[in-house]
UniProtKB/TrEMBL annotation:
InterPro entries in UniProt: KH_dom-like_a/b, OsmC/Ohr_fam, OsmC/Ohrsf
Protein name: OsmC family peroxiredoxin
C-alpha cells in the first residue's frame, strides 16, 4: 500500500498538506524561525503521529476487551539533539488512564500489544530513538 500526500507552499514559511482521508493541515515555522506560528511544527507533528497511532490501537483494544475507562491521554516527551540535523534521540511515552474500575492488567496488555506488535509509527521511531514507555493509573 502506498500513501501519497501533497504539500503545497502557501508563501513565507507556511505549507498546507493533505491526507489520504481528505483532511488538510497547515505546517508553519515559529516566529523566531521566520514563520507566523499558524500551523503545526513538523517535528512536533511526528510526536502527535506516534501518540495517535498507539492511541488508536489502545482505544480499539479497550473496546474489544470491554474495559471500563473514563478517560485516557498520552503524554509524549522527546529530546532533540543539539547538532543539525536535529532529531529525537530519546522519547518517553506516558499512557494515563482515569477511572474507578480500571483493569490495570488488561490495560497494560493493550499498551504492550500496541508498542510491541501493532503501532507502525512506534516501529519507525525505534529506528532512531530510544523509547521509554510508562503507564499511569489514576483511580
Amino acid at each position: 500500500m502506498t500513501n501519497h500526500i501533497t504539500t503545497k507552499w502557501l508563501g513565507e514559511m507556511a505549507f498546507e498538506s493533505n491526507n489520504p482521508s481528505g483532511q488538510t493541515l497547515r505546517i508553519d515555522a515559529s516566529p523566531e524561525d521566520g514563520g507566523k506560528g499558524d500551523g503545526y511544527r513538523p517535528k512536533a507533528l511526528m510526536l502527535s503521529s506516534l501518540a495517535g497511532c498507539s492511541g488508536l490501537d489502545v482505544a480499539s483494544l479497550i473496546k474489544k476487551m470491554k474495559l471500563e475507562v473514563d478517560g485516557f491521554h498520552i503524554e509524549t516527551i522527546a529530546n532533540l539533539t543539539d547538532e543539525h540535523p536535529k532529531y529525537y534521540d530519546t522519547v518517553t511515552i506516558e499512557y494515563h488512564f482515569h477511572g474507578a474500575n480500571l483493569n490495570q492488567e488488561k490495560l497494560q496488555k493493550a499498551i504492550d500489544l500496541s508498542v510491541e506488535k501493532y503501532c507502525g509509527v512506534m516501529e519507525m521511531f525505534r529506528q532512531f530513538a530510544e523509547l521509554e514507555i510508562k503507564t499511569v493509573f489514576h483511580g
